[in-house]
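User: Sorry, what's this?
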Amino acid sequence: MNSLPTDFEKPLFDMEQKIAEFKEMSQNSGMDMSKEIQILAERLDELKKNTYKNLTPWQKVQIARHSKRPNTKFYIENIFSDFIELHGDRSFKDDKAIIAGIAVLDGMPITIIGHQKGIDIKDNVERNFGMPHPEGYRKALRLMKQAEKFNRPIITFIDTPGAYCGIGAEERGQGEAIATNLIEMAALKVPVIAVVIGEGGSGGALALGVADHIIMLEHSIYSILSPEGFAAILWKDAKRAQEAAGVMKLTAQDLLELNIIDEIIEEPQGGAHNDGAKTALTIKAALSRKLSRLMEVDKEKLLCQRYEKYRSIGSF
């Protein structure tokens, strides 16, 4: 475990510390403690398997929000080549909560758009903690239409608590910007793949999520709003967020069962933040496989399939 533990990971962290202490004691004293260390290591491995095999929805929320979880920029750097970032919505300003540009995947030009959280406090403030303003969504739409013009497939990375709901954002048409993206994405004549890498919160996530194929990382979440917001609205008590997470059907496993998403990518034990490089390779393989198939589909058929995909959601 190479980062600070969440609450439920504390027993694992404590056992790792104990193993480290035994190793240090063995080195300093010259005593052979290999047997004791091996027993503890086996117990730790078993505890990890049981812990991550039976995560509650709230525990998955904690992993999805982990401060060390790889972000969009990390995946761009580790999956694609020749990335050129493009800025601005040509109307108001550049929103750093959305990172977007052109890159290459397996020799194919790709348009990439994703939410971008910060890596520290200063960066988070600059990127508004991954919560876009309307100009962020308009930048995204500008690049989507550009991709359509030049027949480039689009890959989006979703990782946001939700769209920013400040006064300025509302004055500049936050709701309209999101709604326009939904309409326009539904009609794009190029393949669109969306990957939920962390939090997929509310319309702020959906504005990049109308896709032909939706992938979620194993411990990511995708929901109508945050558990805190759900609890505050339904029960007038945000402290019941853990309870809310249990009824919201926000995990990848729930959403695959409901046919809202199409694929789950397995994460390294403990979450993507424990081995970002391995996670990136797994995502790359999934993108390459699906993109090659989507590029062979006729444009009109692609639009019909996308239409039917979203019309069928909620039908049982």
Observations:
- The radius of gyration is 21 Å.
- The chain has a mean pLDDT of 91.
- The CA atoms of residues 89 and 142 lie 7 Å apart.
